[in-house]
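REVIEWER CHECKLIST
Item 1: Sequence provided? yes
Item 2: Single chain? yes
Item 3: Sequence as submitted:
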Amino acid sequence: MMYEKSHSTIAQILDAAQRLFVTNSYDDITMAAIACEAEVTKGAIYHHFKGKEELFLKMMLRYLDCLQALLQQAVDLPGSARQRLTQLTALYLDQSLEEQKVMQLVRRDANRFGKQTREQLVQAYQSALPNQIEAIIAEGIKTRQIVAEDARLLAWQFVAIVEVCLSQYARQQFQTPQEMATALTKLFFDGAGLSQED
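Item 4: Structure as written out by the authors:
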């Protein structure tokens, strides 16, 4: 019972921190604000976390671990590289806007931390997204569905295409996450140019 209550309190604190960090800068968030948002005491937060940096790291690792498990479903699917990348992208885009904004915190805030925390964040980010895309692309290269280029570089190019389209404007151009995922994957595989015959 005590373990369940402790686990529930930690989840409550991490959920509150996530809501605050995606809408405010890291420096503007205080432990008191997190306590207020989580409806716990500051003492309860410090019972579970040494400070704001550790709380932020645990919040990010929780999200990135869940994202990795979610996107692994697409990596494990049968089908072409194109189909699997489309499914992976649809799974990512189907998350709430808050969850998608959590991913952006890696770039926004990682450099403010010391080497160990920064490396943990970057490694978790890479495991959750680019490495899984790279696995699909590498298999696509091996099966001649994708040109024989550097799979890691292609994975980062695909990530860039998706991230550019996370804006409100881009979202308004598509009815569903699946429609957007299909369009982004088409852009990656087919490019934006017209052939001379068109």
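Item 5: Key structural point noted by reviewer: The mean pLDDT is 92.
Item 6: Recommendation: ____
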